[in-house]
């Protein structure tokens, strides 16, 4: 898909009649190496971790550490936390040559984010969201560059519908709906609310929340009629989930080792991802040993001794 030169928009992907499979923005986790991995296993679109737009614009160090990509890292959406339109639009202009769209986080329920005016508190400020979407669309000099939002729902769903319709009127490209309120954490996802939002707008809607297996992708589509699904924890546990694997296959584990070594992934990140991947396929004593390992070489030795090497994979 040619998006880097502005000839094609991600929005065109929604018109093919399939349910798009999307890797969610995950702080510390949805970085370049992990995006490279899930793209090998049928992930259609990846999001960066949430980046605070003000820090990004004020600090070269923040830009270099928070936003890393390469030519094969497409289609790519950069998610920002922002609470004023100009800062978001300026940040969008910086990343536009290296990505396919920006997303405004209107769903993060963490206290630090909401107290700073970011994340889920924005669902209560529809006019501000409208202004931010509109300015991004006006300021980025590429009509195919997308501006999307990721939201949570209100207890009074009429307010959420109003927010989404206002965002649509401002030119938002699509909306991702996490089917819980800002106060809810592990309660069941409100699929009927996602369906109501989908039915109330004419732009694509993405469902997010509690999708752990490929079969959940289809059941969520059937329940809501959405155009795509976004997955976070399900992909951490099994980066090959979208390709139909029930648990992380050995091939995927060695792919992660290869990618991490090639890209120079820090050990803590490399190790943490493997802890997630192995959780469902290892015993508690095995996890205790694995979690205590403290070097890349020790991890590779453990994987080879416990699971065996994958024929044809050059991980060393």
UniProtKB/TrEMBL annotation:
Cofactor(s) needed for function: FMN
One Gene Ontology term of the molecular function aspect: tRNA-dihydrouridine20a synthase activity
Entry annotation: catalytic residues: 108 (proton donor)
Keyword match Nucleotide-binding: yes
Known catalytic reactions: 5,6-dihydrouridine(20b) in tRNA + NADP(+) = uridine(20b) in tRNA + NADPH + H(+); 5,6-dihydrouridine(20a) in tRNA + NAD(+) = uridine(20a) in tRNA + NADH + H(+); 5,6-dihydrouridine(20a) in tRNA + NADP(+) = uridine(20a) in tRNA + NADPH + H(+); 5,6-dihydrouridine(20b) in tRNA + NAD(+) = uridine(20b) in tRNA + NADH + H(+)
Residue span, DUS-like FMN-binding domain: 23-285
EC class of the enzyme, as a word: oxidoreductase
Listed Pfam families: Dus
Keywords for the protein's UniProt record, in alphabetical order: Flavoprotein, FMN, Nucleotide-binding, Oxidoreductase, tRNA processing
Binding site for FMN: 25-27, 79, 178, 232-233
InterPro entries: Aldolase_TIM, DUS-like_FMN-bd, DUS_fam, tRNA_hU_synthase_CS
PROSITE patterns: UPF0034
Entry annotated with the keyword Oxidoreductase: yes
Function: Catalyzes the synthesis of dihydrouridine, a modified base found in the D-loop of most tRNAs.
UniProt record similarity statement: Belongs to the dus family.
PANTHER family: TRNA-DIHYDROURIDINE SYNTHASE, TRNA-DIHYDROURIDINE(20A_20B) SYNTHASE [NAD(P)+]-LIKE
Protein name: tRNA-dihydrouridine synthase
Biological source species: Cyclopterus lumpus
Gene name for this UniProt entry: LOC117741557
